[in-house]
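Archive entry: two folds, one per protein. Generate the first.
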Amino acid sequence: MYEMKTVVGTSQIDKDGLLKASSIFDLMQDCSFFQLDSDIELTKYFNENNISMFLVLRQVDIYKLPKYSDKITVRTYVYECNEAYGYRNTVIYDENDNELAICYAIGGFVDLSSGVLIRVPSSFIENYKFDKKQDMNYLPRKIKTDNNLLKEIDRFKVKKYCIDDNNHVNNARYIDMAIDYADDNFKRIRIEYRVPAALGDTIVVKKAVIDDKVLLKFDNEDNKTYAIIEFSYSL
């Protein structure tokens, strides 16, 4: 388990002074990578084999949003792993250790030379220590879509400020992109990552409203999918 403590700052809040959805993703992403970096054996194995992790899915359930200047703690840990995927929980707590937002995420092992998902030896998994799985509603890895219901509502090109050091759109920036197409007060965000979008790529936004959910599909102009985002208004 890895833990980081911080205070909600002005750059992380929305118009109501509450932690932004993308800031939740930023905090969880940062904590997860700090945890990976703190694991000396894992880092050594990744470096020697030119391997990294590609985020496949993140589900975030939101109980309460902290406000500006609130003290919060972010904790993350891996609870399961197989030869293809690792599974982790990340939780944001208030200063009294009450859960504010909980997450489960799935990451695939990727060969940095080819960009292809790979399998790691079972011997590597056997030596890893896992933590207890968080109690939450684990929805499927694949977000169900119906192309007959999805309608194009916008398209735009990827800008420089969205790009991270992997030279593609940072995972949290998809939330910044998506937030304009959903109403406020959502309780859950699920995002399935497919093909990374790069600088200058055109993102075609397709939207459907199904029951209490807003479904967004970010495609390229050839209908290849970058990401699927689902906002739910109940847990």
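Generate the second and append.
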Amino acid sequence: MLERGTLGATGQNIHDFDLSRRLESIVEASEGFHFVQQNGQRIFTATPDLNLPNPPAGCEIFIGNIPKFMFEDELIPMFQSVAKLFRFRLMLDFNHRTRENRGFAFVEFESHLLASLARRQLHPRNLVIWERSLYVDWAEPVPEVDPGILQMIRVLYVKNLPIHYSNERVNFTFQYLCKGLITKTHKIKNYAFVHCVDREAAQLVTEKLLGLVLDDCRLEVEWARPRQYSNQSRARHPPINFCLNVPLRSRRIVKQLLQSRRSSPPNSDSDSGQTSPQSDEM
């Protein structure tokens, strides 16, 4: 079934009613799967009832250069013909009146073997849509945090907060629920970093906030990633095999960032102190 509030019967959250019906047909043909809309993407994934374990790292591929008016009703069957999908994420521009996609998606399979098979079969030379060759590559890998560092983290990354909540309101709510356990809260858009007194306090706060519903938004809580593992840090210090394991668009962004940093004065660091989602100080 379709998640409530994601694809209404009137098609308010997609560009037309016809697409809504076509997506409904995909759900009906895929037992145990549904669509969930969150954070600028529409996700085709298994329902919680199936209780499927998440695939290990290295099972997701990146698909780029997708035509802007092509949606899941055409994309999902194409990828399902290669191998069984575990999750499909299409990035959407919900601010655009025509509800275009953003030109890229992520496809996750049940195993690395299936993902490798799909990546080979979906090679741009074999995959041309509307006279456009799709870009296919491994999704950018997220480095594992060192276990020793992980045990020292006392900052939580809380996702899916109501966008209209101010930082003061979030801080007041969390302080009320977790008296004496939180030192400060920093909200950005629909997520926040929650700094706790110590590691034990952070674990207690996680138990209290995980699954909490605020204005129909169910909170998700996980450990914040240290700054050295953030996207910005990885952009400044790309690995040796960087060009082999990240999407083309990411390569261009990082190349521009590195060029701008080389051309700036040695002592300038205009973006110091900024963090990306899932990263903050311990």
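Annotation attached to the second fold: The longest helix spans residues 248-263. The chain is about 30% helix and 25% strand.
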